[in-house]
Predict the 3D structure of the following.
Amino acid sequence: MGIHRAFVASFLISLFVFQLAEALHPNQLGATRFYAYPPTKIDCGKACAARCILSKRPNLCNRACGTCCGRCNCVPPGTSGNYESCDCYAQMTTRGNQKKCP
C-alpha cells in the first residue's frame, strides 16, 4: 500500500509541475502545436469594397468597414446583414450604442 501511495503522490506532483511550467512558458512546451501558423489576414480592401458596393455613402461605409475588418479580421458576406457569420463585427458599437460596422 505504501508504494502505491508514493507512486500516486509522485505522479500528482509531476502533473502539477508540468502544468505550472506550461502556464509560465506556453510557447516552449506543448502550446505551439496548436498555434503553429498565425491566422491569415483577409484583404479588408476587397472585402469592404464588396460589402459597400451598394451603399449610398461608399466612403463612409468603406472607412467604417475597414476599421471593423482590421479589428475582427472578417467581413460578413453580402452587402448588408449576415452578421451571424462574423460575431466580432456584429458586436462593435459606436459611443452612441449604435452598430459601428456596416
Residues 2-24 form the longest helix (23 residues). The radius of gyration is 24 Å.
